[in-house]
Amino acid sequence: MASQALVHTVGKSTSAVRLLTRPTLPMATTPVGGMGPLVRQLSSGPPRRRPPPSNRANSAAMVFPMLRQNQRKTIPVNTVVKFVPQQEAWVVERMGKFHRILDPGLAILLPFLDRIKYVQSLKEVAVEIPTQSAITQDNVTLELDGVLYYRVVDAYKASYGVEDAEFSIMQLAQTTMRAEIGQMALDTTLAERNLLNTNIVNAINHAAEEWGIRCLRYEIRDIHPPEKVVEAMHSQVSAERSKRAQILESEGFRQSEINVAEGKKQATILASEAVMVEQINQAKGAAEAILAHAGATAQGIERVAQAITRSEGGHEAVSLTVAEKYVNAFANLAKESTTVVVPADANNVSGMVAQALAVYKNINHASPSSTKPATSRLTGSSDQAQALLQQLGSTKSTEPKQ
Questions:
Q1: What distances in angstroms separate CA 167 from CA 23, 158, 213, 281, 299, one per listed residue?
Q2: Domain-embedded: residue 244
Q3: d(CA 56, CA 50)
Q4: Residue where a domain stops, chosen among 164, 197, 225
Q5: Residue 269 located in a structural domain
Q6: Among 178, 196, 225, where does a domain finish?
Q7: Residue 106 · residue 80 · CB < 8 Å
Q8: Tell me: the pLDDT tens digits for 190-216?
Q9: Is it the case that residue 314 has pLDDT exceeding 80?
């Protein structure tokens, strides 16, 4: 009857509606019998219209309560027999004091004394971190956002250790991200996202340990540097590519010059080696020719010597040959119209022949193989000497006058 009267009052009077929608009414926080759902429904009312955000920080602050309001689970009502879903933990208070945490499955509660105060999800939750501004170590303002993954590991601490665990960890993630970016330069921030994510996760876990929450991972989605910084980065990339192209071109030219120089060097070395081999071969050929000529000369002299010593009249024949060559030499000198100095009297032909025979006589006496005296060798050559004198007399008339 009391509930029907309350509904009738709500339908008839607007003042009663205003009274029920006040957040300080005990009926809105402490359900009594079957009136609890109705009072909560009336007290909830339509969502208030919020003013448009002035900047990103205000928009982030306005979005967080809306997200919490949309994602907050409805607190179950004590109907004595309750079934707790899997991966959820229900915190029960008895007469306003913590009593126990209900595990998944069947649960029996005392009416009017037990109250389900908090419902904690033990699943992994993904929270979107809105865009915010941060200043790097080299004083560059960045705008970045991310996604935070966390899980409730202690339902008691998550319920009584912090007022709103999700909101608190979002704020902690934002402040930690600003602090970590402030310790890194722009290039390091852009190049080492994994290191930045790891540092943020470690910092959040260290601070959220008393809240019964564990941060599993944090991922930075987008990083937006200022437009001027982006243009400078593009210019730097273009300059770096031009530098690399010039370096590669110079390296190619340098390698080409080295290859040409190496080719010339090898050609010079090969040419000098060819000249050296040619000269060595010519020297070897000349040496072999000299040796062959000397061997032939020695062999001829040896045979002449053997013929002279073994045959009768050999020495006389040699004497005649020497005299003939001596006379022929003077005859050849007389053919040319030149003035020569001779070591003998050209008019005394017999003296020249005697001198030539004396030279041979001295050589023959110095040879140990001679066994006959010189006078005996010359006796058989008188006829040859007379003929030689006649030849010299005929050539005397052709000599030029001095």
A1: 21, 12, 12, 99, 124
A2: no
A3: 15
A4: 225
A5: no
A6: 225
A7: no
A8: 888 888 888 889 988 888 888 889 999
A9: no
